[in-house]
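Example record for the data management plan.
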Amino acid sequence: MPLHASGLDAALGMEFYVSDTAGTGGRIRASPEDFVVVEVPLAGTEPRPGPWTWLIVEKRGIDTVKAIIRLARRLGIKPDDVGVGGIKDAKAIAIQIMSVRGTYGSIDVGVPGLRVLRAINKDVPMSPSLVYGNRFSVVIREVSDGELIGATLRQIGERGLPTYYGYQRFGTRRPNTHIVGRYMVLGRYRDAVMEIICTTYPRESEKVKEGRRRACEGDYAKALESMPRGRYAERLLLSRLARDPKNYVNALRALPRQLLRIFVEAYQSYLFNRFLSERIRLGIPLTRASEGDLVALLDEHGFPTRHVLTVSRGHEEAINREIERGRFVPVLPVPGHSIRLPGGPIGDAVRRILLREGVGPESFRVSAMPEVGSGGSYRPTFTVPESVRYWTYGDSVRLTFLLRRGNYATTLLREIMKPNDPVDAGY
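Corresponding structural encoding:
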């Protein structure tokens, strides 16, 4: 049985490490230069010039959602008219592509933490489907033994890296985006609003805690006065509630649609993490298919298609040969109203989790807010980091690697570091 993970990991559904080596410990993100991510576009998909502008930007110390909102406000467009290939870490230097509706020769965005390196006119907006992956350069400081990394990487090569959704999807200081999403999926909109504006987490400032205390008391106008301007979502909700205190769906709609979708997607991600942990707990390999498993056909770039099959008895070895050839990959559902569930032992485990959560596929239509509903998808059970290299110097290690789109650097780093407290370790 692989090692159990930290308390925060378990709360986010990441209950295990796949490797059983000792962790290096240490800290990441001692400075922005210690965590650099560069988005890698998919080869062979160069769009033609058209009515969109792609901005190659350097993002530093700002999360992607805030960058979208501020960029839209600066250009006088809707946040929905800003496209991105993926959500990048806030505590990092990220080179990525953002698209905006309209044609611009050059843009001085005037957004702190966001610098435009180049502007190019294109015929389509930027989207995740146009990204191959992300190249990372990460420094881990204060490690106990950098040579432990080699053994961990060898085990990951043999067993596969679990495709857990990482901390970035949920937050670390306020790890509750999935909780908000669960309330939305269950139709508990008041609870969703209260979780955002009222629930206090230990690492928050006293000023934020004071604003939350007033919000819990229902004094939304006073809470708005107390809440710092940096608490963007809370202030939007409180402003609506001060005018219309009982209309919680209306309050939620004060938030950008991208953010509302992130809440629902975070809950889907949490459920996927739980499913994947159950697979590991049951001892079912990540890289091989068993009876009842779902497997997806891969496209020419090696990404899963929507062509998903259920592995029937007697066909396991044939499917596993295709997996070894790179034609199929085992997948688990990211729940939604249009997906099907696996069979076999993992299917039983998936159904037990959904039953305990009180949700089913139809729940993800989000009846009162269908604009944030989701049909769901299928996600591979494992990935293999590419172009991995590392160098040790003193008590520090520099690690470079490439991960295909949809995967998280922190998922690899947690296997290497195995931190007791991910927040103290810089996550």
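Summary line stored alongside the record: The radius of gyration is 22 Å.
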